[in-house]
Amino acid sequence: MLEKIKQILNASGVYGWEINDVKKNGWEFYFIRHELDQHRAKNVEHVTVKVYQMAEDGESIGFASEEIAPTASEQEIEKTVSDLAYRATLVKNRPFTLTPPSEEKAAEGKASDIADISADFIRAVSELPETEGEDINSYEIFVSDVIHRLITSTGIDETEHYPSSMIEVVVNARREGHEIELYRNYESGSCDAAGLKRDLIKTMNYGRDRLIAEPTPVNGKIDVLFSTDNACQIYSYFSERMNAALVYRQMSDYEIGKSICDDFTGDKVTVKALRELANSSENHAFDEEGAVIRDTVMIEDGIAKQFVGGRMFSCYLGLENSFNPTNIEVTGGTRTEQELRTGKYLEAVEFSDFQVDEITGDIFGEIRLAYLHDGDKVVPVTGGSLSGSMNDFIGSMLMSKNSVQYNSMKIPALTLLRNVTVTGADN
After folding, report:
1. Strand 377-382 to strand 214-215: parallel, antiparallel, or no bridges (unpaired)?
2. pLDDT tens column, 94-123
3. Same domain, yes or no, for 180 and 238?
4. Residues contacting 140, CB < 8 A, separation 6+
5. What is the CATH number of the domain that holds 112?
6. Are both 270 and 125 inside the same structural domain?
7. Are residues 319 and 346 in the same domain?
8. What pLDDT does 103 receive?
9. Burial status of residue 424 (CB atoms within 10 A of its CB: 0-12, 13-18, 19 or more)
């Protein structure tokens, strides 16, 4: 089928094109408690075609994309390509060149043993220390062996092979006739058994504490400690502001060689894009446009070093060897956990919603569970919200030396933001 699509694209007269073909050979399991309810094998293929059209005067370029069913007939493919070619003429971007082939040959990888990976997930959940008050309600496992092939009009023809997994878990907690559910969704390459068990044990504890939590008091300004995956939103703020798209659109004021903050009194972040991160589901050799992914330091000790991003905006900024990053590692912490867990602070662990705006830097979160620490006293609290701006927090932010990984992000295990505005549950 791919050869037929190539023939039709080459005969269409479009300026350029890309074919992304993704095949997934997977297993799915559905458990009620720890009893298998049903399971199935799943083999799917997604073929996405993107076409580019250059204006006759060479002053603009446009593009459009659409998925084509693997069972599509030749007539259906021709119609889709024709529609895409027309839609691409309606988009007027500054001209840019398409990604050329690289001298670096992508590592193809190897087939994943989905049976072993599935067994690892089932074993990890079965080993959780459940109690009468906190246990696993249900869980679903999705494991795939993925083959991704990219073919382009510029001569790229690369294939990569990698595992991709997801597990959804519902945790129950009950106390004195009251019961709540906490939902978790974890993505990874293969099974990170240690990380999965660590997080689900925390989740069961959070369920227990949520049932005895007091209303969040009116605190005004207070230090807030982030110890869960919500901190990924904080660190995505830095990597997004190094993206060529935001820089070109003047939505990011970061400049190469300059500090991202005028006055540091806390820790300075170092942000890296990584080709591989152990057990990530995003260990790609190349991005969706064919650019080779490389280990790249984006921010070093608070200094902007290298912008990255998609082909169009990278061309506009004159970037060489740019790409869309898939794995991010953040370091720069200088504190131990004990040093960060001192004095009075709020440890926010559960939100109904938590956001960090990549453009304005505004943060907001509705608190479902937090722990108010004051010396030796720790009180679970719920309700209220926190807010502020990363522009105010960057200079005084503190991070732990040790790290934790959440799929494609490896970040400091603890992150402390100073003087965050917290509104109590009664407001």
Report:
1. parallel
2. 999 999 998 876 666 778 899 999 999 999
3. no
4. 28, 29, 30, 31, 167, 168
5. 3.30.2290.10
6. no
7. yes
8. 80
9. middle
* C-alpha pair distances (Å), 321 with each of 248, 296, 313, 327, 422: 17, 10, 12, 17, 43
Contact 224, 421 (CB under 8 A): no
**Within the chain, which residues score under 70 in pLDDT?**
105-108, 427
Q: What is the arrangement of strands in the sheet containing 270-274, beginning at the earlier edge strand?
A: 303-304, 296-300, 270-274, 327-331, 409-412, 403-406
Q: Which two tokens stand for residue 180?
A: 């709540």
The pLDDT, as a whole number, for residue 107 is 62
CA 101 vs CA 211, 292, 321, 328: distances in Å: 57, 9, 11, 25
pLDDT of residue 106: 60
- H or E, element range at 303: strand 303-304
Angle at 407 between CA 383 and CA 187, to 5 degrees: 80
Question: How many structural domains is the chain composed of?
Answer: 2
pLDDT at 427: 57
At which of 208, 239, 272 does a domain end? 208
Classify residue 13 as left (phi > 0), alpha (psi -120 to 50) or beta.
left
Both 204 and 219 in one domain: the answer is no
**Edge-to-edge strand ranges of the sheet holding 157-175:** 61-68, 35-54, 16-32, 134-152, 157-175, 178-188
pTM of the model: 0.94
Q: pLDDT digit string (tens) for 299-308?
A: 999 999 999 9
Question: How confident is the model at residue 76, as a pLDDT?
Answer: 97
**What is the per-residue pLDDT for 108?**
67
pLDDT at 105: 65
Domain span including residue 22: 2-208
Same domain, 51 and 154: yes
At residue 109, the 3 state secondary structure works out as coil
CA distance 95 to 402: 45
Domain termination site, one of 208, 228, 258: 208
Q: Give yes or no: residues 241 and 335 share one domain.
A: yes
Q: Which residues pair with 382 in a beta bridge?
A: 215
Q: Nearest CA to 273 among 239, 248, 238?
A: 239
Predicted local distance difference test score (pLDDT) of residue 88: 97
Same domain, 192 and 235: no
Q: What Cα–Cα distance (Å) separates residue 425 from each residue in 81, 207, 215, 355?
A: 55, 19, 5, 19
Grouping H, G, I as helix, E, B as strand and the rest as coil, residue 178 is strand
The residues facing 371 across adjacent strands are 347, 380
| Nearest residue to 26 (alpha-carbon basis) of 112, 89, 92 | 112
State how far the alpha carbon of 313 is from the alpha carbons of 247, 250, 279, 309, in Å: 9, 12, 30, 7
Residues 181 and 257 in one domain: no
